[in-house]
Every structure is written in structure tokens, then in C-alpha cells.
Amino acid sequence: MRIAFYAPLKSPRHPVPSGDRQMARLIVRALEKAGHQVSLASELRSFCTEPDAAHYAAIRRAAAAERSRIEALWAGHGRPDLFFAYHPYYKSPDWLGPPLAAAAGIPYVTAEASFSARRGVGAWRETQADMAAGLVGAAVNICLTARDRRGLEGLGGLSLATLPPFIDAAPFASAGDAERDPGALIAVAMMRPGDKLDSYRGLAEALSRILDRSWTLTVVGDGPARAAVHAALAVLPGERLRFLGERPPEAMPETMAAAALLTWPGRGEAYGLAYLEAEAAGLPVVAERVAGVPEVVRDGSTGLLAPEGDAAAFAAAVASLLDDPLRCRAMGAAARRVVLADHSLDAAALRLDAILAEAVGR
Questions:
Q1: Torsion angle defined by CA atoms of residues 189, 148, 287 and 202, in that order, rounded to the nearest 10 degrees
Q2: pLDDT in tens, 223-268
């Protein structure tokens, strides 16, 4: 099929790296791997961090002009067979896909849409209502987590399908056989205020409890909260810390291969692609049982999950794997097998193709 792809939160061409941009790019690659022809419909961004009515009024106007542009383009070059929207939600509604698909008579499909009834207040009431209307009319809404699926089920009457979060696991294949220092911990996350900074603080508190163990922590990431992150980690001995800053994607397999265990609480994570990358490289994970983390970390099998905000339990989980390198390696091997079987680009391409075939009656 010819598929028009749109990500109202962040275009796959956006210059700032993030998990949202990475997953948008991965979905495009999976669709192409399944044999579909994908074109970017628009780079219009509707996202706003605050319920700003003026911002959304301006985006509505821009969306109307963008729809006219796209309709003229389709009139001259042929319409696509399907419109695919990635990650519409109340802060970044899709004001392009539903009307364009309806006018062109083609299916509208979403992936990783989310809905929470408690967000339908203030200026976001209208954006969430518009977003929800698009979901109701979609041929299928593809859920990447059970949490998102439960939210959409609350709307009632939606067509839903499940696609596990995934990565391109192939570049991490060689990392699975690497010789590792059993005390080499790694954390990979952007340095932003909010959940990310909160996770860094939680990690620092947990690791400060196990200074009697032999370990070092490599930190991969950068961002506007860099100073606050460094201040949080300053409770740990400086000789145990190594800050690599932001690393390009192609450097991550080698970076992961030098570690033995990923330690990251993951507060507020939709699921966390860094967990899957670590697991693909043969690392087990210690995280918190929060948000979408259990979607990609199987407690007791591919990693250990501590209760949210429980620094003592998190520290105990890390210590248990430091004290048992054989168990740590066995969990890492299991993690790699799970990613290759259930969370790889190949697996996602097959699953996506089957979902779309059923949704559009191919």
C-alpha cells in the first residue's frame, strides 16, 4: 500500500532526538520492510506543553492550510491507500488525518494513541475530544502497551490491535557475546526536568546504598537538566562515575557491550527503547515497576523490577545481580532472546502488515 505517515507530536525528521522520534522512524522502517511505500504527509507539529488555547487556535488554522496543500498534492499525484498517524494524544491532536482520510475515502489508522478521561479539562478538553473522535473513526488503533489499550477501551467501540514496542536489534547482535566487567552499570536517558530528572535522583539514592559493592556507572545522555543531573549524582564517589554525554545511535551497540547491567528507574516511561537496546545487547535491566516499563522488562526473567520510588528495593535488586554474575549473564541472555523473538524490527514488520491487512480487508 501507499501510506501517508504523520506524527503530530514530533516529525521523524525533527532535529531533536527522543524516544518519540525514534519510534516514529522505526514504524516507518517496519512498514517499508513489510513492502509498503511510505511518504511523510506533513511536518506540522501540534504539541504544546501547556493548555494554551491560543497555541491550539493557531495550529488549527495551520492545519486547515496544510490540509488544502495535501489535498491539492493528492489530486495531482494520486491519493494514498491509507493515512497512518503516530502518537496522537491530548497535547498533540491530529487535525490532518481524520478529515483528509474521510475526504479521500481511505482508512485512517493510529499507533500509540493514548486517552485519559481526567485530561478532558480546560483548553485540553477540545483537543482531547477531537483526538478521541478520530480514534472512534479509525479503521484500527494500534496499541504498544497494555496501559494505552486500557485507556482506549474506556472510549468504547474502538477497533484495537496490539504491537509490542520494538527496535532494530541487528546492530546489537555482536554485543551479546562481549566480555563484560560484572560491575559495569549503565544508565541511558536524556537529561530533562520532570520524570527523567526524578529517575536520575532515584538512581543516585539507590546506588548510594550499595557503596560497599564494586561497581561503576556510565551515564549516557545530555539535555537542559544536565547541571541538576550531575548535582544529583554528586552523592556518589566521582571515581565511580563516567559521563559520556549524548551518543549517536550507531555508537550505542559498542557502548552497551562495555556494560553488564542497565540500571534506570524509568519513571513516566511509555516503555523505554533504551531497555530494549540493552536487552538486545545481552544486558539484564533493573528498573521500577511503573508506567510502561513492564511491557519491555520481564521481572525475574530479563530483569528485576522494584516498586516505584522504593530506593531500598532498587538497591537490593542491583546488589543481587552484582553478587551473582552468573545469574546476571543468564538474565542478559534471556533478554536478548526475548527481544529478537518479540521486539525486533522483523517481528514488528510482520505484525504491522497483518494488522493493516485485517483492518483494511486486504
A1: 60
A2: 999 999 999 999 999 999 999 999 988 899 999 999 999 999 999 8
